Amino acid sequence: MTIDLYYTAGSAPCRSVLLTAKLLGVNLNLKPLNLMNKEHLTPEFIKLNPQHTVPTLVDNGFSIWESYAIITYLVEKYGKDETLYPKDPKQRALINQKLYFDMGTLYHRFADYFYPIFMGNATPDPAKFEKVKEALQFLDTFLEGHEFIVGNNLTVADIPLVTSISTYDVAKIDFSSYKNVTRWYAKLKGVLPGFEEFNGKEMLTKMYEEYAKNRK
After folding, report:
1. pTM for the model
2. pLDDT in tens, 115-167
3. What is the architecture of the domain spanning 3-78?
4. Residue 51, Cβ neighbours under 10 Å: how many?
5. What is the pLDDT of residues 33-63, one digit of tens each?
6. More confident residue, 210 or 26
7. Structural domain boundaries of the chain?
8. Sign of the dihedral through C-alpha 141, 144, 150, 156
9. Which residues lie below 8 Å from residue 158, measured CB to CB, with a gap of 6+?
10. What whole-number distance in Å separates Cα of residue 178 and Cα of residue 113?
11. 89-212 has which fold?
């Protein structure tokens, strides 16, 4: 059985899938795509994913994209127990809410503020940066009183959130005043297998520097 992952290493959503698979002990056949060279627009890839986005997972012929759908699929199919994604409706609702928070608020606000600067040389927008700080405060509040984002056990919701915060870190957005975020971020570095390999600050910094150099 082959599980292919079409991905771009610097992408936070792709890193979420890589970390989830590593945590589960799922071996992936990695298929990197260079988006700048339009490798995601080949007829072969569009047949797998008409939206031609990364990450895209193909599990023995079953094709699925959108990182949140991929990581929950992997956990439900290959997880050894329910710890990462409990079936209890209330626990699962809390996990799903945090996944949607990452997608619609934490990562979205970062992208809205930072990508025009990084990719288009735009002037930093103070109003957008205030939204970034508000998102960090939300996350800090969610983490108050417990070790992980939903209670005291690692769940699938922690993974995309920590890849987003890693991207904040590489972009030099200071979150040191958010004590719960800082504590949780340090903890995730120690408990997630493959953190430095797929999500480490030094590796990501070099990758983004290389990308910026190639754009010039």
Report:
1. 0.94
2. 898 777 789 999 999 999 999 999 999 999 999 999 999 999 999 999 999 99
3. 3-Layer(aba) Sandwich (3.40)
4. 9
5. 998 889 999 999 999 999 999 999 999 999 9
6. 26
7. 3-78, 89-212
8. positive
9. 148, 149, 150, 184, 188
10. 19
11. Glutathione S-transferase Yfyf (Class Pi); Chain A, domain 2 (1.20.1050)
| pLDDT value, residue 120 | 73
- Using alpha carbons, select from 144, 153, 135, 213 the residue that is nearest to residue 183: 144
**Does the structure show a pLDDT above 80 at 208?**
no
Contact 40, 52 (CB under 8 A): yes
Task: Using pLDDT thresholds of 50, 70 and 90, give the confidence band for residue 213.
Answer: low
> What does the DSSP assignment read for 98-156?
HHHHIIIIIHHHHHHHHHHHHHH-PPP-HHHHHHHHHHHHHHHHHTTTSSSSSTTS--T
Residue of 11, 67, 164, 166 with catalytic role: 11
Q: What radius of gyration, in Å, describes the C-alpha atoms of the chain?
A: 17
Helix (H, G, I), strand (E, B) or coil at 7: strand
Active site annotation includes 11: yes
CA 101 to CA 119: how far, in whole Å? 24
Task: Give the residue among 5, 55, 49, 53 at the shortest CA–CA distance from 26.
Answer: 5
Length of the chain in terms of residues written: 216
